[in-house]
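It is worth pausing here to work through a concrete case rather than discussing structure prediction in the abstract. The textbook approach is simple: state the sequence, then state the predicted structure, then interpret. We follow exactly that order.
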Amino acid sequence: MSGIFSSVILNAHGAAREALARAEERLALFPEPAILIAHIRSAEQEALGWLEGESFIPEQLAMNYGYGPRAWRRWPFAFVKAFERKPPWSAIPTADAIRAWLKTDEPAIEGWPSPAPLEIADTRLEVWARQAARLSALPRLIASADLAASFARAAPLPHSSVVIGAMLADRCALAKGKLSAGGIAAIGLNHNRSPWRALLTGATDDDLDELTTHARDERCRLAWLEALGAGGTAVVRLDQRLRLWLAKLEVACATRRKSSHLRALALLAGAGPSLTAARAAKALGLSRQATTRLIAEACKAHLLREITQGNAFRRYVIAA
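Step two, the predicted structure:
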């Protein structure tokens, strides 16, 4: 491999592999995996929204679509249709596999119109798939960089080819496990403020010495590999932050009677986008009044925080 790729790409490849391996290890060892997964998914959603060219404001999302666990699926963004739907492939996908992934119908949400199916330019998709098949000889992470870039340039979708290309490449890079739902690289691109769209076309603002196609592809590979590494590191940091919160929860529970529902309440809040007293009461089998007191106790212990500024139907998230 050393004779094919530059030392810069090789170093970035090695760093990305190490960061992703650390992230996967942290996820495997995390004591409450549902909480870490929930926060990884939230970070992926935010990053994919940014890559789509839309701002992600959790409070605004809630105002428009609600705080339910699947409320974000009402977003009119292309990545929403495919997010958290594990693609049915472990190798370079075919055109048929891509169609099946993007066109699978999601269960209808009561009171909301079903989103229109994504339009796919079949000829462009077929051409891309034939070219992409040749990438199977490359190391997986480097191949994923080329997949993301080539899908965006082929533009088989009238909109959102950039973000969908990044998602399918992300899932090819991380084919096993629960680490990615398609947005780990997007987290890194966002964190690095990488000009991904400009890099794809070579139309960057930098004073570049080399403007060849090879140089353009090299810059895309480097940005993508650095993004995978940054995405893996972001997961490790999430792990560290949430472990501190779990330690605080342990201290708070140690001073309370065994029958206390404080731990269950906190874990319920940690594994979802937000918590209301009504949802907590139903899940814990408590009265609304008892649940309200328990939430106040959790806030006083700095385990939860309110995100609705005292408005009606108050909602809470963990204070991590």
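Step three, interpretation. The longest strand covers residues 304-306. The chain is about 60% helix and 0% strand.
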